[in-house]
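quick one: nicotinamide-adenine-dinucleotide bound model?
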Amino acid sequence: TAPSQSQSPVTVAVTGAAGQIGYSLLFRIASGAMLGPSTPVRLRLLEITPALGAAQGVAMELDDCAFPLLSGIDISDDPAVAFDGAQVALLVGSRPRTKGMERGDLLSANGAIFTGQGKALNDHAADDLKVLVVGNPANTNALIAMNNAPDVPRERFTAMTRLDHNRALAQLSAKVAAPVTDIRHMTIWGNHSATQYPDLFHAEVGGRVAAEVVDDQQWLEGTFIPTVQKRGAAIIEARGSSSAASAASAAVDHVRDWVHGTPADDWTSMAVPSDGSYGVPEGLISSFPVTCADGAWSIVQDLELDEFSRARVDASVAELVEERDAVQGMGLLG
Ligand code: NAD
Ligand code: LMR
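yep, here:
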């Protein structure tokens, strides 16, 4: 059926619009993959001044797709303008990691961007704003934006671990020779970094505990976990630049599930402000198993973490605490 244009457009702000992820993400959003086939979108693109010309070029290409759902594009180098009326804000713009860099190196390079953007979201975005931070270090950048936007409810700030979640699905699917659609309850815990913990003790394949289906602790510990943790670096090594189309696809998945809900028999992974669940200090933006309904997420409660899992969750959360303390020391938390 032809898309109905009866709904008013949803305003989606995207930062770093002229970058690699933007080049994939904007076309998926405009095609309706993120908000659905009957929701028109108005794009508001933010770029730094020297990249405005390139952003114009991307907007020309978006025009040339004649997407039925795309109701307008605005471009600015001023966050106050780009975030005006934003209902969904995808904070992608920041410097990507290059070969040999760890995410910690990005804290100072990128932290400052998110104070200004947090303030601008606070002052200019719509009341129903939802924020996804993709730019690295994503969890801590989301923490900075959240702390600089005191009038925006904290639960509206999230960071992306959906790419890690999807990577874990793909690795497990290949190992057990089952389609990804047979897998439920995958979880990424902690930070979007090499300390993250992809959990096969709660994941299920065809209704059975994934770790038992795999039945190979050496693969789980020596191959699966490090492969998922280091996949970002492996892509950088292979491609010469960081993941882009897969990151854009994960961002589409994250926002789609947040807005439209997770399937009744499954959950997903999102980095969200902790309420103290699973011993994660309150306010840290950490990845958890979450379900979404009616445009809101909630952390799946009461999962048992054995000693193996507990130690790995704790290590990643300890890294988030270190990152928080570092940006607090730089005065970025307001
Ligand atoms: P890129 O360098 O190709 O594009 C980034 C764009 O952001 C550039 O066009 C740049 O001009 C723009 N930019 C820089 N500062 C800005 C600002 N203050 N406001 C608006 N725009 C600004 O990078 P990319 O490959 O698109 O990656 C973007 C970010 O996403 C990087 O930090 C990367 O590490 C991160 N990333 C995260 C995940 C994840 O899973 N969370 C996955 C892949 C990449
Ligand atoms: C990824 O996971 O692919 C991105 O976060 C890029 C990176 O620096 O690892």
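The mean pLDDT is 95.
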